[in-house]
Amino acid sequence: MLRYSEASGLFILLFFATGCQPLPLGSLNRVHPTPQKQRVGTVYLIRGWRDLYSEGIDQLANQLEQANVSAPVFRASQWRDLSSAIAQQYTSAAQPEPLILVGFSYGADDVLRIAHELQSKNISIDLAITIDPVTPPSAPRNVKQCINYYESNGVWDIFPWLRGIPLETKNSDTKLLNQNLRTDRKDLLEPNTSHATIAGNLKLHREILRRILEVCRNRPQSFTPARPPAITPGDEGAGPAAAVGNHSGRLLGAGDAHGLQSQS
């Protein structure tokens, strides 16, 4: 078996060999407790470290937007700014709509870090979805439901990278569901599923969409939410990350979109 130092060198080599290019920053001005969408709620998605293997998160966001769900995407390095923006907007909201967090890899870890920070502000998270978390904290009690999709890799899971592991919670308020694709959800496996490909797994996308649309219901057509003030402290966003054309991948087909939008 590789020694720790050898495995570290292999990881660094793999990173530079991928030619990974950062995807766009997310816009903090898209943080909104009552978005202008047909469906209630907002899904905030967080990519993995330096956007590595994370194009699938942008694909998932595009599918959510097609289903009329507000779904901005952020880099993992933005998680603290995102947490502060959510706290600012949702604390002052009279009737905030469902708040959903989705993250991949180290971005999945960040989802739970944000949840811990929001707990101190008494802000509840309706649904947290993590994909292959690497070094996650426990799920705090302000998370109503947490679903963790991951793929175990045997002895390689001792290394804190390129892995997915089960989550833990220290409270009875959070409904936690760990779903190991190798044992619990073999129906979600695709050929050559790994940490490098799981974020783009189309079967997993459909499962996550189903879970999210159960929370983000259709709103009354006559409802028009009011716009709060824009985020003031140095919004570094470069526009909605979910609308990245170069990384859109396969979007929903006409039949899929019709089926998703018909749910209420």
Helical residue percent? 25-40%
Please tell me what the overall shape is: globular
Any idea how many domains? 1
Through-space gap between termini: 51 Å
For the largest beta-sheet, the strand count, sense and barrel status come to: 6 strands, parallel
CATH class: Alpha Beta
Q: What structural class is derived from the secondary structure elements?
A: alpha/beta
What is the spatial order of strands in the main beta sheet? 2-1-3-4-5-6
Number of helices: 6
Beta-strand content: 5-15%
Arithmetic mean pLDDT: 82
At CATH's second level, what is the architecture? 3-Layer(aba) Sandwich
Task: Outline the low-pLDDT stretches.
Answer: 1-13, 15-19, 235-264
Number of strands: 6
Order of helices and strands: HEHEHEHEEEHH
Cα radius of gyration in angstroms: 18 Å
CATH topology label: Rossmann fold
- CATH superfamily descriptor: Alpha/Beta hydrolase fold, catalytic domain
List the helices and strands and how they pair.
Blueprint: H1 4-17, E1 42-46, H2 55-66, E2 73-74, H3 79-91, E3 99-104, H4 106-119, E4 127-131, E5 145-150, E6 175-180, H5 202-215, H6 254-261
Parallel strand pairs: 1-2, 1-3, 3-4, 4-5, 5-6
Helix pairs in contact: 3-4
